[in-house]
């Protein structure tokens, strides 16, 4: 078979789409959704029509269609939303496994999701809603929240380590600037960045301002993200963020629910970048050219 000059190897296509190569292989082998060509050495190559097909598959999945039902819909012009989202069932199952601390079932479900769906979709449809569901005020069990945060940090740390193993570019530094011992949304942002090819380093504890400046200078960071789902805690304050912004060459971004909490103070800091959630932070960094182009889920940008 003649190879097209515009054919793309699996690693490039996976990186461009923000998904794992294993996901593309699963769509091919398990569901027959795509049919890549092969190079003379047997490597997968995706011509233009197959690349477009991958984008269409993602468009359907991003709208709530189970991957097993995508094949019969690929020839339709416009994806439509499913009334019965399969994600709701999965979230209910995951919540029950968190309540019973069923690590094995969570591990299996997480690995299954990774093999079928891109990281942004898993974050949006499963993990972020699940983090809301385990709030103690919703069911009165703090241990459920602690279990999920601990398990999630362990799993995402493994994914980040795997994604960043061979990256040499200046990193994005993510620092917990809130009161939680674990900041799960910061870890989700780190995973989203690393899955797009951005090198990340994390500190899950606040630093004094001089140490923070020194730490980022030693790493020639491309950006520093201070993440907090609660009010900013000492040793950092809005006033110190201004000083940090003046003394660092890296882009500074404040992210998390703290942006809403400190909205009045931030109104007088127009030069300080802010984002209220991991996806808004990802888009802000993308617009600055610090991470790969961000394609919002559930929009025609994925086509």
Description:
It is a single chain. The protein is α/β, with parallel strands linked by helices. 50% of the residues lie in helices and 10% in strands. The chain has helices at residues 10-17, 21-29, 48-62, 86-99, 103-116, 119-133, 136-139, 142-163, 184-195, 209-218, 238-247, 258-261, 263-266, 278-287, and strands at residues 8-9, 37-38, 44-46, 172-176, 200-203, 223-227, 251-255, 273-275. The strands form 2 sheets. It has a 5-stranded parallel sheet, with helices on one face. Strands 1-3-2 form a 3-stranded antiparallel sheet. Helix 9 (184-195) links the parallel strand 4 and strand 5. The relative contact order is 0.10.
SSE sequence, one letter per element: EHHEEHHHHHHEHEHEHEHHEH
Mean pLDDT across all residues, rounded? 83
Describe the main β-sheet briefly.
5 strands, parallel
In the sheet with the most strands, the strands line up as 5-4-6-7-8
Tally of DSSP β-strands: 8
Task: Based on Cα principal axes, name the global outline.
Answer: globular
Second CATH tier, the architecture of the largest domain: 3-Layer(aba) Sandwich
Give me the CATH fold name of the largest domain: Rossmann fold
Work out the count of structural domains. Answer: 3
CATH superfamily of the largest domain: Cobalamin-binding domain
The CATH class name of the largest domain reads Alpha Beta
How far the N terminus sits from the C terminus, by CA atoms, comes to 27 Å
| Rg, alpha carbons | 20 Å
Helicity range: 40-55%
